[in-house]
Amino acid sequence: MRSIELLSLFLMFSYHQAGTIAIPGAGGFDYLLADSDNRRLYVSHATVVEVVDLDSDKVIGQIPNTNGVHGIAVAHELVRGFISAGRDNQVVIFDLKTLATIGTVKTGTNPDGIIYEPETQRVFTFNGRSKDATAINAKDGTVLKTIDMGGKPEFPTTNGKGEVFVNIEDKNEIIHLDAKTLEVKAHWSIAPAESPTGMAIDTASHRLFSVCDGKVMVVTNYETGKVVTTVPIGEGPDAAAFDPGTHTVFASNGQSGTLTVVKELGHDQYAPTTVETKKSARTMALDLKTHKIYLPTVEYGAAQAATAENPRPRPSIVAGSFQLLVLSQ
């Protein structure tokens, strides 16, 4: 099919807001994860993880005591989930069926991005303040190694074949990590793009998608480590996702209040379109079964006065304003 025909077909199925999911309580948010197989959506929310049923879009449970939660990973074959609790410098392990906490594992300082690598059955946390990664045996929760990242790691992804990739925000690069040997295999520059945050992967075409400051998505060939192209996106992105069923890449842009929807046209050609969301909708999750997008948002109040200890205070979050925007085709 020709590129123009693919683009026309894509535009026929553009995204729109289909609803919202209100989530009670106060506090901020970070990443969320759609477990499409088990029909659950895990949503970070200050000190807890909210659990939403993906078929009914209803809150069905909560995992408590995840102080400063950043991200969630799941291991279906082990019936376990893993949560990076940033303020406690630990991973919380929970049962996927009951949501009960199984145990905790100490990590580096401020574990942020987290991923389960199925080939090795290992969990990796990427620790922002200590600038390292903690490798954990997912079966028993033992720490295998602390791996120096040489910079501040952000969001990771994996090809499911023993290779892990992670954006290094303050070095403007991607690290290629061997999940089997627990060694860094390569550092790939994405300059002049800066501050890569969210990342997604297309394993069929061997492409990584890193969303960056400057309203740009960088596309990297993870077999060669070379940047193949860039795609314009919105301002303030923090998450990316790839849908292999529709050959579509997404970037959620919190500052511009938009979702960039990028259609793969083949031969490293990409066609971006923009969907209005809401300012603060900077992270997202994709349900691969329904192709719905979930974006957490809040309302912000006035910021506190700047101090020497906190020269750039964040605005306060209005209690009771936390909700998920639901976008569908």
Describe this structure in words.
- It is built from one helix and 30 strands.
- The protein has 329 residues and is mostly beta strands.
- A four-stranded antiparallel sheet has the order 1-30-27-26, with no helix packed on it. A four-stranded antiparallel sheet has the order 2-3-4-5, with no helix packed on it.
- The longest helix is centred in the N-terminal third of the chain and has 10 residues, at 3-12.
List keywords for this structure.
Methylamine Dehydrogenase, Chain H; globular; 329 residues; 4-stranded antiparallel β-sheet; 1 helix
CATH homologous superfamily classification of the domain at 65-189: YVTN repeat-like/Quinoprotein amine dehydrogenase
In whole angstroms, how far apart are the ends? 21 Å
Specify the CATH architecture of the domain at 65-189: 7 Propeller
Total helices: the number is 1
The side-by-side strand order for the widest beta sheet comes to 1-30-27-26
The largest β sheet comes out as: 4 strands, antiparallel
The mean pLDDT is 94
Task: Tell me how many strands there are.
Answer: 30
| Unreliable parts | none
Give the C-alpha Rg. Answer: 19 Å
The percent range for strand residues is over 45%
The CATH class designation of the domain at 65-189 is Mainly Beta
Query: Which bin fits the share of residues in helices?
Result: under 10%
CATH topology of the domain at 65-189: Methylamine Dehydrogenase, Chain H
Structural class from helices and strands? mainly beta
Shape: globular
